Amino acid sequence: MFFSPMLLQKTNEPFNDDSYITELKLDGIRLILSKFDNKVKLYTRHNNDVTAKFPELLTIDIPNGTVLDGEIIVSDSSGKPDFETMMSRFQSKRNNLENCTLSYVVFDVIQYKGKSVSRLLLMDRKQLLDEIITQDTSLVAKVKYIEGNGSAYFDLVRQQGLEGIVLKRKDSRYEVGKRSQSWLKVINYQYDDVMITGLRKGEFGLLLSFVDGKPAGLMEFMPPSERKILYNKKKVVTEDDKFTFIEPINCRVKYRNLTKAGFLRIPSFVQWK
Question: Is 25 a catalytic residue?
Answer without folding.
Answer: yes
